């Protein structure tokens, strides 16, 4: 059964806003009123919740983040964009390696596993992930954009168990659906 990516993103943004407790605000940018895909919903949720959590975590309170959905041929393209602390150029080559944390995290806590697992999930889905970032300083605001490109109709419907575990831990924090 096909998934409407627009509806999916709307619900996801609503859920993430709830978890973020109104600290930042999340803007959803859409290029279509609907976009169908045959994707593993849990895997996609895992990918996007991780990227959005990072965008929120590494941005000061009050600074909105963005989720943009576009399409090109049979691809879905997701941009998760923030105007937060940014990633130092020396750390970019190791960003997707396990337990890697960038030198400018300061007191922001994390395990450094999120992006390593996200990259695996994207690859399982036959997609690609890339990053573009500039460090923020007093003179210039920077920020980070993570881009995920996924085939909209891949026949590969593998769901690793780790994804179920993650989805459950996020779902536990959400309000009960009516
Ligand atoms: P967790 O495992 O809880 O997600 P984490 O957020 O530290 O911990 P990753 O999500 O894998 O780990 O990210 C790796 C590192 O990349 C982070 O520690 C941080 O230094 C940097 N990083 C990731 N996303 C951003 C972002 N949007 N802005 C700035 N730095 C980021
Ligand atoms: Mg993270």
Automatic annotation (TrEMBL):
Domain Histidine kinase as annotated: residue spans: 1-154
Put simply, this protein is called: histidine kinase
Highest classification ranks of the organism: Bacteria, Bacillati, Cyanobacteriota, Cyanophyceae, Oscillatoriophycideae
Specify first residue, last residue and whole-protein length for the fragment.
518 to 695 of 696
């Amino acid at each position: 059964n096909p998934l409407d990516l627009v509806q999916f993103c709307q619900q996801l943004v609503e859920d993430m806003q709830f978890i973020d407790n109104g600290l930042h605000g999340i803007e959803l940018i859409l290029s279509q009123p609907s976009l169908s895909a045959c994707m593993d919903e849990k895997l996609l949720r895992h990918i996007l919740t991780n990227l959005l959590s990072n965008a929120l975590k590494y941005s000061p309170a009050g600074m909105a983040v963005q989720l943009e959905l576009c399409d090109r041929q049979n691809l879905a393209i997701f941009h998760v964009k923030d105007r937060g602390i940014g990633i130092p150029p020396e750390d970019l080559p190791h960003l997707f390696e396990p337990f890697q944390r960038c030198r400018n995290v300061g007191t922001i806590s994390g395990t450094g596993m999120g992006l390593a697992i996200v990259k695996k999930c994207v690859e399982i889905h036959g997609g690609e992930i890339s990053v573009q970032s500039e460090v923020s300083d007093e003179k210039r605001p920077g920020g980070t954009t993570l881009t995920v490109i996924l085939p909209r109709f891949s026949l590969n419907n593998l769901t690793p168990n780790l994804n179920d575990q993650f989805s459950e831990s996020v779902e536990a924090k959400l309000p009960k659906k009516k």
